[in-house]
Amino acid sequence: MVEILLLDLGFYAVFVVLENVASMFGAAVTSACVVDVGAEKTMLSCVDEGISLPDTRILLHYGGDDITRLSNWFLHQKLRAFNLNITNSVDWFKMDAIKKALCHFDYGLSGCNDLFVDLPSPDREETVQIKLPHDFCRLTGLTLFFDGLIAPSSAEQVVEFYSPYEGSCEDIYGGGRNLNRKVVMVKKNDKTEVRDRPALVETSTAVSQDSMENSLAEPPTTDKAAPASDGLDNVERATKLMELHRAIVWSISRCATEEQQRRMWKNIVVVGGGYALFSGALEFLKKKLEELVPPSYEVEFVPNTRELPADLYAYKGASVIAALETAQYLWITKEEWQRNGVKVLREKSSFGW
Fold first, then answer.
1. What is the DSSP string of 200-259?
2. pTM metric for this prediction
């Protein structure tokens, strides 16, 4: 991708940064547990003083799309006239708009929720009126907290943990890959832009839900799975889901010191558009965490602001990092790429290769 940006598209320079680190800078904190709930997967990692802690990274293969599917199923059960088919891309976007309008975690509301929802349509304007109890609106959002509400397409790759590459650090073509998705900063004509880089699957270690419930603070006990079809013969996979709140507890418990753990509990940053945009979402998640965390720990969330939605934190943070004087040496120019090739990525990465 770097070669395409520099040589084919003609960008002046490229700067690569981990997305969780960028999200932390976007939240304007120095240390945080970053919970990135996307459409199809959820990524957790603790970042301390700008350094992503490898042992705390965890990838969960569920996200906002699972809430959309559950909402669609419930609406088909409750409303006879509801006829959206989410296998069609247009109906999927309509269902996603309905989900965002209906779903909330505000337990102070009672009665019925009467809404008019504007649906995205390629050829005409559409508005639908939906009247449902608030209990239903709260139920669909619980998808991420109860494994029985998610029906994954595959029993494998439900939970993955970061496992450092044990080969030589000089071997940049090795099988170990970084689990985090990356935000790529590109500079063209001295102007900075932000682009997404797709996630890479990590050679990982998985934990079962039962072992995590026995001891959240201890490393997971795992069983080797059969070799995966993608050729990674040392991948260990989980066969059960880990709920979102338990995954946060597990991630923070992997911090090396108690002081680090306390800092993470006081600065939990929830980003992405799969969960944080719902009303009352952070308050509900805080209550779920307080049920698992000892009273001596103070659980606090970095509040989302109207000026910066939760799904834009990474982009804001990446632009902040790119403007820092201390990070200017991380930019990779076209001349450096042509001279050193892919090795320059290891030399100028702000994270452990």
1. ----EE---HHHHHH-SSSPPP--PPPPPTTS-TT----SS---HHHHHHHHHHTSSSHH
2. 0.75
